[in-house]
Design brief:
Blueprint lengths: L5 H8 L3 E4 L2 E4 L2 H18 L3 H17 L2 E3 L3 H9 L7 E5 L4 H15 L5 E5 H6 L4 H15 L3 E11 L2 H6 L1 H17 L4 E5 L11 H22 L7 E5 L10 H16 L10 E4 L22 H15 L4 E3 L12 H4 L4 E4 L1 H9 L5 H14 L10 H8 L3 H4 L1 H5 L3 H21 L6 H7 L11 H4 L3 H11 L5
Parallel strand pairs: 3-6, 4-5, 4-11, 5-6, 6-7, 7-8, 8-9, 9-10, 10-11
Antiparallel strand pairs: 1-2
Length: 482
């Protein structure tokens, strides 16, 4: 059910949760997990009243904190990887474009069964738009899934590809960088304590030297990093990632890595003394987002350059103390590729499109809903079809945009359909986690990551205070302007 007013929401949580200042007490965990959390997350996503949505998101976040589910930074673990104190696994970073609550539950089931320590939930700037999931909603869905599943521990939420648009940057650099900064602020306020800055889009390969090619990239990354350090919550060192090669472009080189990091560090030093820099670096080694689509809609086999990936990871650790290199666009790679990532010292791998494909192509997914989505794409998004695209290629590349437009239809699928899709996703997550060697790694996270309960201002709807009071509490929770 969906709560349509704050009063009905307050009545719904009565006897199960209790609001106590800017915290929530769990009075009946069994009822919270068996029924209330389903209603809370549905309300957070679909209530027609924005104040009710905000209130539901806050209650979910604070209920999670009461149970030991805390938004956290992976920074300290990555620093330990950079020092060589922990190794042998690659951290999976998972983008959930649709059925986020159900999909995240599948992840947590695997994490609990396999004693998995580091795993990240992320969403990219572009995905936030076409899946219609703002950071607060995405964080709420993942937290609700953790509560439902009985998970306890740090919750690694990440802003993936918080990307500078090259086209918009050319027209108005300040405005475009400002838009990314605004998104970073929104993400941090929602508990995204891991931020991947992607300014690789402004790399200019026409310049004569690698330093000049990477100059704008380094300057933008340093500028946004400095802002992150200014507004990160007390007690939290947000993990910040940079990128030197746009996914789908030319393969990265160690020379580019050095030029970028050296330029980045020079720029960051001008922003303030002792500012913490990057924990990892994203590189290009032959993949593309979603894979290369063949005319029949199938995915071409990609030959990923693992030698380059290994060389870049080693350089990132040995020369700059980072955790290593990050591989994007990996989910559609062949199964036999995945155990290469930990063997080659890859710090993190990003996985997205395969899970989208599993949802759309699942035998339980209603054929009539799939047809409605595809018909909409053909009618309303025809301008996005390439001149040489077959219909199969066009649908494959564009159907990701159905997740936002048809979000409610998907969330309202029958329980047996959701269960079937969830089981197949769970099997896939287990396979990937096993290949990436993150099974039985919970001790590593406990050793290096100490979650912090960041105060979150009570929404005016529950506090009885005005917006000004809420803003004051927010300023007290975050080191803004210091």
């Amino acid at each position: 059910m969906v709560y349509t007013s704050v009063d009905s929401l307050k009545k719904g949580i009565s006897g199960i949760l209790q609001v106590d200042g800017n915290s929530v007490r769990v009075l009946n965990e069994e009822k919270l997990r068996t029924s209330l959390i389903d209603d809370l997350i549905y309300t957070a996503v679909f209530s027609p009243d924005e104040s009710v949505k905000e209130t539901a998101c806050w209650i979910i976040r604070r209920a999670g904190a009461a149970l030991g589910i805390l938004p956290s930074s992976i920074q300290s673990l990555y620093e330990a990887m950079g020092r060589g104190e922990v190794s042998g696994f690659t951290v999976p970073a998972i983008n959930l474009r649709g059925l986020t609550y159900e999909s995240a539950r599948a992840v947590f089931r695997v994490a609990l069964r396999g004693k998995v320590g580091p795993f990240i939930f992320e969403i990219a700037r572009s995905e936030i738009g076409y899946t219609e999931q703002r950071p607060a909603e995405y964080a709420a869905a993942v937290t609700a899934a953790a509560i439902k599943s009985g998970y306890r521990g740090p919750l690694f939420l990440q802003g993936d590809h918080f990307q500078v648009s090259a086209k918009k940057f050319t027209v108005d650099p300040l405005k475009e960088v400002g838009a990314v900064k605004d998104l970073v602020r929104e993400g941090i306020q929602a508990g995204f304590y891991n931020i991947d800055i992607d300014s690789s889009t402004v790399v200019d390969l026409s310049k004569s030297t690698v330093e000049d090619q990477q100059r704008d990239n380094a300057a933008i990354a340093a500028e946004i990093t400095a802002m992150v350090r200014e507004i990160e919550p007390r007690g939290i060192a947000i993990s910040v990632g940079g990128e030197i090669g746009e996914v789908g472009g030319k393969n990265s080189t160690v020379e580019e890595l050095r030029a970028f990091i050296q330029g980045y560090r020079r720029e960051l030093a001008t922003k303030g003394k002792g500012l913490k820099g990057l924990s990892k670096i994203s590189v290009q080694t032959g993949t593309s987002h979603g894979g290369v689509v063949l005319p029949d809609g199938s995915i071409a086999k990609v030959k990923l350059d693992f030698d380059t990936l290994e060389t870049l990871s080693k350089a990132a650790r040995k020369e700059f103390g980072m955790s290593g290199a990050v591989q994007h666009g990996a989910s559609t790679l062949p199964d036999e590729a995945f155990d290469n990532f930990p063997k080659r010292g890859t710090a993190e791998v990003h996985l997205a499109t395969a899970f989208q494909n599993m949802i759309y192509d699942h035998a339980f997914f209603p054929a009539d809903l799939r047809s409605r989505i595809y018909d909409y794409i053909r009618a309303e998004l025809a301008g996005e079809k390439g001149l040489k695209d077959t219909d199969e290629q066009f649908i494959y590349k564009t159907r990701k945009k159905g997740f936002g437009l048809f979000k409610k239809d998907m969330w309202n699928l029958p329980p047996d359909v959701l269960k079937g899709i969830g089981k197949e996703l769970e099997d896939k997550f287990y396979f990937l986690f096993e290949k990436l060697n993150v099974l039985n790694t919970s001790d590593a996270v406990r050793k290096f990551v100490q979650p912090v309960d960041v105060p979150v201002p009570t929404p005016p709807s529950l506090s009885g205070k005005g917006k000004a009071a809420a803003q004051k509490m927010k300023a007290e929770a975050y080191d803004e302007g210091e």
